[in-house]
Amino acid sequence: MLAFALKRGLLALLVALTVSLVCFFLVHLSTDIAVAMAGEGARAEDIEFIRKQYGFDRPLAVQYAEWLGRAARGEFGDSLYFRTPVAAIVWQRLPVTLTLGAYAILIALGLSIPLGVLAAMRPNSWLDRLALTIAVVGQAMPSFWFALLLMLLFGVTLGWLPISGSDTQAHFVLPAIALAYFAAPAIMRLTRSGMLEVLASDYIRTARAKGLRPMAVLFKHALRNAVIPVVALAAVQLGFMLGGSVVIETVFALNGLGYLAWEAILHNDFPVVQAIVLLIALIYIVLTFLADLANGWLDPRIRMG
Amino acid sequence: MKTIRIAAALAVALALAAPAHAGKRDNTLRIAGNQVPESLDAYFNNVRLGVIIAHHIWDQLIYRDPKSNEYKPLLATAWKWVDQKTLEIDLRKGVRFHNGEAFDADDVVYTLNYVSNPANKAVTQQNVNWIEKAEKVDAHKVRILLRKPFPAALEYLAGPIPIYPNEYYAKAGPKGMSEKPVGTGPYRVSEHQPGRLVRFERNKDYFKDSPRPQPAIEKIELRLIPDQNTQAAELMAKGLDWIFNVPPDQAKQLRSVRDLTVVAGESMRVVWLTMATREGSPAPVLKDIRVRKAIAHAINREAMLKTVVGESARVIHTLCFPQQFGCTDEGAPRYPYDPARAKALLAEAGHPNGFEIDLYAYRERQQTEAMIGYLRAVGIRANLRYMQYAAMRDALREGKAGFAHQTWGSFSVNDVSAMMPVFFKFQADDVTRDEKVRELLDAGDTSVNPNVRRSAYKHALTRMAEQAYVAPLYSLPVYYAHAKELDFRPYADEIPRFWEARWK
């Protein structure tokens, strides 16, 4: 298990390095940062001054090595737009995104696993069709549209829930539902297919033949095995929720990381863009690493292979 | 058991219920904006919301009455031009900043010298770079020395140049001023959560002689809500009392909501078709004046106002906003909608079957599409090239685009010098390069004699219209939606004046 963990850890580190490298070069090649920083109407000498001042005239490889060295120490420089340290802005925005992501994954799992199990218990029944419909609608409907519908129903018409902002826990309900509904279908379909496969296997027939209660067969024997791929998927979905909540954060005026990323791109604020991409990549990597470990622990065949 | 569950669900629903209705009851105006200013320091942001905020926190030296466009004393009591490059200003006595600091000449001198020094990196350079320096004459008199004659100086002193407390600003700097702004204006900032929220409180000690009325609304809460639909939903749910820049289609829908008022105000932003005629224009066909005139005759501006542009806009015949100093269409030829005349002009120019051309555009796409329809009707087949503003601007500057649906808002400056020189004084955005127009604009831009200026601009505008260098179209409206119980009046400079607003 230790060798497995080490191997996966090394792989995760390499992925993190690759992501930071790609991100650094993409940002630097997409625009002339000195020109972007100098702003409209800047004179050529202003641009040159900035280029020298910030060291943009040096080879990219040197700049990358320097940036990486500072990033490793947690120093990301100052935001060009907000003129405050990048780390401070990111830390300030992170809790909103983490809260939203946590609620959303709980809702997604709470909705999709029971539905997936129910659908697998009665394949091709009306229950299965209903679950399929929910899944198809969830995947097909753009999340901003679903968010607006939620807002109109629960915010405007019924007046039950606040529409925008992040002042109280109630403010997270609608955005978390909107975010969860987009992620739920994939988990649900995977649970269903996994359950169908497991329920058709020999050991389940044996368990039933032994006269175990149907619920015990379902949850103790079948679900635990069917859920293995779901763990990996849920980790990826959580990563998506933390990094890809740009639209939901914008629609609900939640000032999180996703919205910050959008703002930073809009204003050519490359230190912020780089820090966020690296942070989200790290979150993804940690989550998949944890999922790998969990899977290895759940299923010995994985760590042997 | 079941009853307990239902009761619990109800309790949760009640606990989560939306906050009480906003507005009149607690004398708090809740408003929203969709763009965060990077700093509340007025010299360190250049977004519309920043301009609006600045007008509430700070006073300028001069006040331009938005109804009469007259200049009135604000922090200054009198001003006079000593010569073309020297402005002498008497200051008001007895005014205090929100932190108690007394207002005097030191504040004006410090503010102007600080922001006009490029080393301090104010981002609104175009608003302050005409100032050479400010000097103290006595405790309540200052002299402003200009780099070169700049007749629009008074307009700038009445707009984007708020006065800061010198002692506080020297200590706090732009960063501290953004975190905790201090001014003399009708509202003080009571809370600022960067990028989220700004809370304002009425300045109870606002000086009584100000030409701005004493504010009636006690508190203003400004929230950042980036999405326009979310803003509308908040307004309908009474979480907000006022929103602006509402898209025309949404304005139409909001109009049907009880308790809401939708008003359209004219803005200073004007719309025209750019036709590049300078050397190397990628659309050489536009060099023929008959073709340019044909294009001007082809567009039905009045019909466009009714169908796609919206109310409160107006047709323009010269390239400026009618209310701006120096703007006139007197004596300038007009090109009314006349497709037959357009076709005849095209035939005369050797294009009886029209021609094909790329039309660049970056906003109000519906309007561009309407223009394409009108052009097609006279035989001009325009292909739409729709892109971001910066991309279109660069294409025009680099001579890759020659025909464009352009707009310009003049930074809310009520003087044509904020517009015409940009497009006709051989700067990067000048795709015409007419020496005669440049000479006339130079005369207008450098004299402090209003009559000399008016005459110079009039001749420049007439020459531009005679040559049909551009096809001026119309001004754009701005829609505001607000609670019915709010008494609010919009102005063309797009600055909402909440110190004037009241609950009905």
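qc> The first helix of chain A runs from residue 2 to 30.
qc> done
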